[in-house]
Structures are given as structure tokens and as C-alpha cells.
Amino acid sequence: MSSVTVSILHSERIFPRTKQDSEETIALSLLDATTVNFAHTCSTWLCEAPETAAGPEFDLADHLRQSLRVALDAYPQWCGRINAITTLDGAAGPHTQRFGRVYVQYGTPQDPGVEFRVAETTTTLDTVCPALRAVDQPVWNRQEIPPEKFVPSTPLSNALQPDVLDDAGLFPPLLAIQLTNLACGGFILTVKIVHPLADIQSLVYFVKDWASVSRSILSNTPCPTLNPLFEPGLLDSLAAGDIDAVEPDMAIIQRAKSMPLHRYDWWASSPNSPWPVKVPEALAGKMLSPAGKPMPWSEWNITEPVSHYVVHLGIK
This protein's superkingdom (predicted)? Predict the structure, then answer.
């Protein structure tokens, strides 16, 4: 495995260019709430050196920083905080006020902003992603240079965990970005965000919006009007039955269970569990119907290392 050292040069929090007039609190969808403990949505772009037409004094990091501020005007919710309802007080109220539902709050003095990191490494683009890999390495070991080297290590907020202030007195962000400058003049851009706020499609849509702003600034043309859709309630409004009902509709549940999909109860105890099952405090000691089958830990060997290869298939 190659040894790659990535050095962090600068880290700061970025906010929208336009300040919010008022505080906003928006409930995320029921589907969003199920992804709180999912892995972060994350994507990495490997880029060649910028064209020299930008000028010898061109500062890529500053350009990305300034264009990011403009793009965030259309994504202010990504600069705020995410929280979850952890009590049963709203059990009989609207579905958005019940245990486990998640909401985003932004436009407050406590907004953490977006983490923006600038880093450098002595490696090159061809080392990270060889141009001839399909020929020279038909079975390409991706762990020779671990991709996570270029992912910002900044802890992101978790709606089910208390936010802890960092050394600068800031709350953990929802979105973190790292620009890693390479020795060849190229760069790697990695963006990661908490899953409840964006899946991979939403993340790529944001980066495309950011790129359109970047191109406008470089060409000295008016910035485009960005119109991303952020209406979590729209998804819930399409739910079958009465989503605000106190009791579930068993006909809908049985229909859902008939679909070919594994459903496991994350809180149900089961033999061979590699770690203790921690039931949320609000549900401790209560008799609840199982949300699914116990996790079949006996089928998994979590001690075995996981390899990561890319197999290039030829026309033959």
C-alpha cells in the first residue's frame, strides 16, 4: 500500500453570501428520518490542473470559497443544525412531532456553516487514478491509495446525538468540503453531507449548481438563478393512508411486508450481536411491537477484512 500524506493547510466555516432574514425550522420527511444513522453521503471529484487562461495569479481555493458562498444562498438549510424529537410527548399529535422525527433549523446565530478545508499532498493525479489502469491493472486495488485520505475528517452532526462544541466554540456542521491540491497541479474535491439532508442525487445536483456559479464568475457573466427544491413535506403528503393517524393501518403494513425487502429491527436483541443494543431512553421499559426481524448476526463475520477492487472488463 502506497504511503500518501495529506496535510491540512487551512480550515474555516463558510456561510451564504446573503444573510437569512429570519429563523427557519423545517421538519424533514419520514424517509429522511430513517437515514439519521446511515453513512454520510459523500462524493469525490478528481480534476486536472485548471487552464492557464485563468491567469498565473489564480487562487483556486479562494475562487471555490467565493463561488461556494454564492451557491449556498440557494441552500441555506445546509448551513444550519439538525435535531430529532427524542420524547414521546407528541405521540398523538401530527406525525412531524413524534419520536424520531428530524427537523433542520437555520438562520440563527448558532448556525455552524459549512466546513471548508484546503489541503495538499505530494502525490499526483496519475498516482491516485492511473490513466492506463484498465490495461495495466485490470484488477485494481483501490486500497493502494485509500480514497478516505481525501475525505474531510470533520465530524458531522448527528440528530440523535448531542452536539459538542469544537475548540473554536462551533457546532459540528452538516456539510464538509475538502480541496486537496496535488503535486501535478491537479486537485481533488470531496464533499460529504449528513444523509437526512441529501442523498447522492441531491449532492451531485448541488455540486452542479456550484459549478455553474463557478463558471459564471470565471467568465465574468451574471450568475445563474439557482432553484433547488427543498420541500420535505411534499414527500410525506404522498404517503398512503392517514399519516397523522394514532394507530397504523394494518392493511398498509401487510402490503409493505409483502414486498421483497429485508426489514430488521435495529433495537431488537439477538444472539452474537457484536455490540450491545442500546434502546432509546424514551422507549426503555415499554412493550413495543417488533419493527422487524432481529439482525441475523450469525450470518456475518465482521472480523474479516474487507477488500475494495475495481475490475475492468474488456470487450472480449
Answer: Eukaryota
Q: Which residue(s) pair with 100 in the sheet?
A: none
How far is it, in rounded angstroms, from Cα 312 to Cα 137? 8
**Residue 278 Cα to chain centre, angstroms:** 24
Fold of 6-234: Chloramphenicol Acetyltransferase (3.30.559)
Do the bridges between strand 41-47 and strand 24-27 make them parallel or antiparallel, or are there none, so unpaired?
unpaired
Q: Is the pTM of this model over 0.85?
A: yes
Cell digits for 138? 485490470
| Contact of 265 with 112, CB cutoff 8 Å | no
Domain positions in the chain: 6-234, 262-300
Confidence at residue 78, expressed as pLDDT on a 0 to 100 scale? 98
Mind listing the pLDDT tens digit for each residue in 33-49?
Answer: 999 989 999 999 999 98
The SS3 call for residue 139 is strand
SS3 30: helix
